[in-house]
Design goal:
Elements (H helix, E strand, L loop, with lengths): L1 H7 L3 H28 L3 H7 L11 H8 L4 H31 L6 H13 L4 H11 L7 H4 L7 H14 L2 H9 L4 H12 L1 H17 L2 H6 L8 H17 L14 H31 L7
Helix pairs in contact: 2-15, 4-15, 5-9, 5-12, 5-14, 6-9, 10-11, 12-15, 14-15
Length: about 300
């Protein structure tokens, strides 16, 4: 009887934690809902009534303007997906292959290479030298590589995080046991270490994918051909055009200013930009759960 009462008794700390988590979820969801409803609100209604969860008049004019004003929309979206996929996979590969030897106690030069990785986190050559390096020596200007290689392909911070995870969460006995069974270092890395590191790979993968998807500075620096624009660069250009029309600086387009749904278009652009991340995250989340239960050392 007492055991049953203990099961149904609520721990105050647990109840407080649940309440805090629910409030946090509400605070995260409400701004996105407000942004979505604003993008679906008729422009004049939005200007008069402001941002509301239940607007008086709904309209799709913002999304119609986005799709009609740019014939490159689907192409740029495809470029963003391609860059994000290639960049994330390449970054994870380089990060893990760099972090693994740094986590092994038998690697003699791990202190030197760890300092080198840490040093790159503190100092860099600056924007001008990077631009000259990538555009003149490696000649990646106006190519897809301009979105992938500069600044984003491998982060020293991620290398140190993965190194610490390998060292703390993957016992050296597991790797040594694989070696005794005849496995080489490369086989042990691919078949034993990486499957046990799914949680950290999923976490770093999400952060890296976010960096690639949201990046527009590399396109600003290295891309001058509009046909190579990614989604972020195309939307940035559209926002500049909307701001130009709304400012009234061009007398030739003064009549078109009133027909430009500038406020709702900005909200629609934000919704379209965040939508792939919302779709991608649930698929990554399952790797967090499954990776936590992957094998460990048996006593």
């Amino acid at each position: 009887m007492g055991h049953t009462q203990n099961i149904h008794r609520k721990d105050p700390v647990q109840v407080f934690s649940i309440v805090i988590l629910v409030l946090a979820c509400v605070l995260i969801i409400l701004p996105f809902l407000l942004m979505l409803m604003s993008s679906l609100t008729e422009e004049n209604t939005l200007l008069v009534d402001g941002y509301r969860f239940f607007p008086a008049k709904l309209s799709l004019e913002a999304y119609e303007y986005i799709f009609k004003s740019s014939g490159m929309f689907l192409k740029s979206y495809g470029y963003s997906i391609l860059v994000t996929a290639i960049g994330t996979i390449g970054s994870l590969f380089l990060t893990c292959t760099m972090a693994y030897p740094l986590s092994r106690p038998g690697f003699r030069f791990r202190g030197i290479f760890s300092f080198f990785v840490f040093f790159t986190m503190l100092f860099n050559g600056g924007l001008i030298s990077q631009y000259m390096l990538w555009s003149t020596i490696f000649q990646i200007k106006n190519t897809i590589l301009a979105y992938i290689v500069p600044n984003l392909l491998m982060s020293g911070f991620y290398v140190l995080i993965v190194r610490n995870y390998f060292a703390a969460s993957i016992p050296n006995e597991v790797v040594e046991s694989a070696r005794m069974d005849g496995c080489g270092e490369w086989y042990a890395f691919w078949k034993i270490v990486l499957p046990m590191a799914k949680p950290i790979l999923a976490a770093i993968g999400i952060l890296t994918a976010l960096n690639y998807w949201n990046d527009w500075t590399n396109g600003l620096y290295y891309i001058t051909k509009t046909e190579l624009y990614t989604f972020q660069n195309l939307l940035n250009r559209m926002i500049q055009q909307i701001n130009f029309l709304s400012s009234g600086q061009a007398s030739q387009v003064a009549k078109a200013v009133g027909r430009v749904p500038s406020v709702s278009v900005r909200m629609g652009i934000a919704v379209i930009g965040v939508l792939p991340i919302l779709i991608m995250y649930p698929f990554f989340q399952k790797y967090f759960a499954s990776g936590l239960t992957v094998g460990a050392v048996k006593g």
